[in-house]
Structures are given as C-alpha cells and as structure tokens.
Amino acid sequence: MAYNALDDRSVDYADGLALQLQQKKSRLMTAIDWDSELARGTSASDTPIMQEMTPGAARSDPLADVSHDRYATERRWISPVKYEHGVAITNDDVLDTLTDPTNTIVEGMANAINRWKDQTVITPQFFATVDTGETVGARTQAFNDTDFKIPKTEGGNNGLTVQKLAKAVEIWIDNYVIGNEGDLENVYMGLPARHNSALITKFFARTKDSSVPVKINGMVVTEFAGIKCIYMPWLTEDVTDSAFHIPLWVKSGMKGKDWQTKADRLRELPGKGTTKEAYSERRCGAVRTQEGKVIKLVADGTVDFTNVE
Q1: What does the pLDDT look like over 167-192, one tens digit per residue?
Q2: Same domain as 238, residue 91
Q3: Which pTM does this prediction carry?
Q4: Is the domain of 120 the same as that of 20?
Q5: Longest dimension (CA), the chain
Q6: How remote is the C-alpha of 296 from its chain's centroid?
Q7: Does 192 share its domain with 121?
Q8: What is the pLDDT of residues 16-64, one digit of tens each?
Q9: Which residue among 164, 171, 241, 277 has the highest number of C-beta atoms inside a 10 angstrom radius?
Q10: 40 and 100 both lie in a single domain
C-alpha cells in the first residue's frame, strides 16, 4: 500500500500523531525468557526438560549394589511465525507531506512488528499444544485444563477474585513452581482492558483497611495482589463460556526466540519509476516451556473483592 497524503495537507500531522500513539514496544517480550541466540532452520529445540526425580532408597548393606533409575527428558520445539510487510512510497507522498515520510514509516513498521510479536507470536502459545518429541510433530502435549485451569465459578464468583489467584498459587506451590521468599519468580497476568476499569474503580472505592494491595500509575493498575499486570487489549471473550481466558505465568514458563532471517530495506521498485518500498521481514517463535508454569484463569470482565475487604 502507498503511504498517501493526497487529500488534506494536515494529514501529515494526523498521521504523525497516530504513529506516536501506537504501541512503542512489545508488552510481552520482557515478561518471558527471550533467547538472544538466533535460531536457524525450520524449528528450534528448547532446553530439554528432565523428568522429576524422587529420592532413592538407602542401602542397608554398604556392600550392596546401588540402585539406578533412568529418567526421560523431553524437548520443547519452537517453530517460527513469519512477518512480512511492505509500504510503497511515491514521489507524490514526499511532495504532499513536504517531509521525508520514511522516518514515520520506519517508526510505524517497528510498532507493527512489536504488536505482531505480542498478538501473533506469543499470546497464542500460552495455551497452545506444544511439540515435545525428539522431532517436530513426533509427540505433542496439549494444555492441561484438568490441572492448570481455574474455572469461572471458582470461589463462587465469575469475576476476577483473590480466591482465583489464591487457587493459582496453591497449584504452583503443589508443583514446586514457587516456594519460600527469595525463590519467587516474577508473576505476570495478561488482562483485557476491561479489567483495568474494574480494578481502578475498586482501588478508589476500597477502605483504608483493605487487604488487597493495588498499585497504579496514573489510571492504570500496574500490580494487583503482588502480580504484575500486562494489558492485552486483543484478548476477547471466549464464546463457549462467555469469559476471558486470562494467562497467569511465571517468566520461565514461556520462551521466545528470533530466527536469523531478518530484513529491513528501503529500495526502489523496478519498473515503478521513482516509487520506493519500505520492507521488513521477521521470523520469531514462542513456546510454553513446562506444564504448570502457565495457568489458565477463566473470568468475566468484573472484579470482586467482597469476601476479602
């Protein structure tokens, strides 16, 4: 498509403003383990996960043979998703904006890539089926709804409640994901925008002796009950249960990776006169690293602290 500014000379300002309002950086990349080593090929293997070990029986006779166990490992495969986008820039674009439009196009492309990483690369992998075999496709592991899903009705309320979060922590403690103070990973919760409105209302309405800690920056709730909030406005209600499937995860529970293939070019288009093309290409992937480190919290768009305030 062309970056056209033909109808209104003020469109240069409007477009520049719109670009400034776009997302500046990925919201999720810093909340997961993003591997700095570039991958090659069609898929990359995450660090093998060793099966949980149990203490062996002590020998009653010091001359007896030591018993041996064998433990299986599994791989987690990351497959890349491709981003490719081109923007045509004509002489008319440059003349009508009276500036070089490539600067704003570069900024807009960067913003688009960051949104693509969040929405297309990372978000679908929270609850996706993962490849765990020796080769890609040999064996798969679906998300375990039985053990790691908190239903909408948990705690007797369909909304986001402390009871639901307490249940998530119970699951993590049972699975040795988190433990005593000092070995607690950062915990993140991906929320739709609707929950910020509900949380901010609760924040200003709460009593002085409220036991629910909420941190805000401006009118945005950044932390709720010690959990870092990341807003994912692209989350939509699931039609099957009229609720949001909210990811709750520790940082090591997700891994992302860039591929070596990468391109950012500004070039003339052959046969198109002075028309140029701004072009970018990326390949990135993400995967859930270990079952139990990501929890699916099902809740509607409300927040209720009635039982804890």
Answers
A1: 999 999 888 888 766 456 789 999 99
A2: no
A3: 0.80
A4: yes
A5: 92
A6: 13
A7: no
A8: 545 554 556 789 999 999 988 888 878 887 656 655 667 777 788 888 8
A9: 164
A10: yes
